């Protein structure tokens, strides 16, 4: 059904995917201050993979993802979300209180909301990519 | 922490192989030691509170209350836990699923410990439910056996149904007392017995406690739960879980006890359970069922003692509780040894085993004598005190004395059946050649039997200024001196004891013929509460089949219709009745806004009338992008970006699904189309009204001001939308993440399953699948913005 292999799409996808992924990370990191954030970034990244899926099909995309199954990404996302909850306990503060640390050398603000946001990113990425991929897989085998 | 250990136990299994049980047993043993160390302080001060803030903004914190009652229970749980783990190492040796067993057992132990230590009512409830679930897993451990599955389900249904009642009861208790902490409730001056909610609250709590503790008429699940491996029966169904209900009653006794309702219900139900349990016990020849029914009898006794509520009864309660846990745990483990070594659970098949299994026989004898209440064992003291407090009961005295006497005669018979029948008399042929059990399996029961003996000989260790005093004090709510001794002088209770021993022995000798006569009663038994449970379950199944056929008929359009109609009815009703809708038309719109809105309307219109699916998808997409435009016009870039991305992905998903759909055809009749049109139009009008109403009514100060002001200084972020998502409302987002993940897993599983099935359903179904797909991704994707 989805015809992969048109030259324009292939070339575009090959160049666009890394760009989109980089852009998604950019969106993710700046999300706290500027428009962006884990949710949007996750969607952009999922878009990147979807484009690649359309261009090269499921098996090629799986190769790009190598060992990573999108379904695992969902788990990673949820896990990160849960992890970000924990530090507050150690500081004796209520569950989910945001913690901020500044990493001195590069002046980077690390925080539990950031970890949480990364968790959102992975959960969204994993869910959407997983769904699209499964749909295409089923289609491929079902003439 | 315990749950982490439970999760790690398969790994431990890998490292330590067969010694895993021993290693795991170190954990409860360590906890027991820690609890024992706290004992002097608890005895001195009454109680200890350990607090851990959880979600203080919701008033939820993890607080543990350690007083005499929870200390006694905690010690029982941990010590028994250690014994049972060691025992299970022998019993389930080389079992392929032993890792799974360890996980469930340790998880259960931790839940149970949490239950008795919890201070918060909600914490207590959560742990209560956890014990039900882990118990379900343990009863159904042999999941290939249909009987085990059925019993596990029955236990789960009964206890969870009770759990629902309990939740209602706890909520009422929280409302009535104004506090969610047990320690505060117990300290309160105000008397809850006078409260208007007292009766419903008590009924709900009692339902919870009675189902959990297998009180008549909910007793039937416990004997069936004997489908579990014996270590589980020894641990859950004699010493710990079934006592959770008793624990709850004892815990609330100082605050709720003593009223007419309490005394009446508890003593009558307790006494009935006691008699019924003892009476049903002698029907059975299966050694585990015998013990299970005698456990029901013991649970009934405990409930009855709480009902009587005199000082004497409190002393009797704590002593009986301890004694019962020790001897019943030991007896169950002995039953397991017999089953394991002879291959049968039927006591009539066993006999003359003493020469082969001398140690087991000794343990069984000691424990059974304690059950029968023969001096100098702890069981004797417990029984003496029990009879004494029954004689001193304020209400229903004659009834209680009669029941207690009959029950103790029957119990003594049971004790003899269990301890003497298998070991003495003529040797029978058993399926397996019997031999002495391995050391690991003997250690636990030996320790418990020894405990029965030593504590019986030296009751002073428990009495004055020691553990049981603290426990009795915690239950009665006032300082109590517990003085235990083996000899109280010749009194009515002692005489009753001696007479019942004689009669019990007589019954044991004539057991075989008595049992034959009891078979005549069999048709009557079939109409017991269990039959009621069965017919109720069948009714539920029938009902759910009926309503599934009605509501879950597999057509997406029907689901949507029902959902929308409900929404319209509820919200429309509330808007029209409570707020008169305000229509303020403000025609101050700019040209480009009109264009965008017009595009949207045209998209919607086209989507409904087009006969091409692709056309519909595209026009829905047009609507989506127009919405994004509106977001941009009203300066909400985050929302606009999200909308764009979601729209894009939705179109992609829809296109993917589109190829799988059957040819477009018109299936609805024109009447159905009119109906759909009406619902759709009403929905549109409703949303319009809702927006206008919410615009005109401002009941509360909008929260956005606070969020905008504090976003940068408190949450260090200038993007408010993101700050709301990851900080202010992070808990909501976390929940949404799980929703999203579940939706994705659902979609993936559904597609893969259908695919792997090889059977491709009819077209109607397939259509459904696709639409659901796109729909759930869209819904899930949009949800994080709800908060």
Describe this structure in words.
The complex is a heterodimer of chains A (143) and B (787). The model of chain A has no long low-confidence stretch (mean pLDDT 78). Chain A has helices at residues 7-30, 38-65, 70-83, 87-90, 112-141; strands at residues 100-103, 108-111. With 143 residues, chain A is mostly helical. Chain A has a two-stranded antiparallel sheet. In chain A, 45% of the residues are buried. Chain A contains five helices and two strands; from the N terminus they run ααααββα. Chain A has one domain. In chain A, a hairpin with a 4-residue loop joins strand 1 (100-103) and strand 2 (108-111). Chain B has a two-stranded antiparallel sheet with strand order 1-2. Helix content of chain B is 73%, strand content 2%. In chain B, strand 1 and strand 2 form a beta hairpin. Chain B is built from 32 helices and two strands. In chain B, 46% of the residues are buried. With 787 residues, chain B is mainly alpha-helical. In chain B, helix 14 packs antiparallel against helix 15 and helix 29 crosses helix 30 (720-728). Chain B is elongated, with a radius of gyration of 33 Å. Chain B has helices spanning 2-16, 20-45, 68-91, 98-117, 121-139, 146-177, 182-187, 198-212, 221-224, 230-239, 243-256, 260-281, 287-308, 311-342, 358-372, 378-391, 397-420, 439-457, 467-476, 492-509, 511-518, 522-525, 529-551, 556-578, 591-609, 613-633, 637-658, 670-696, 704-715, 720-728, 730-757, 763-782, and strands at residues 47-55, 60-67.
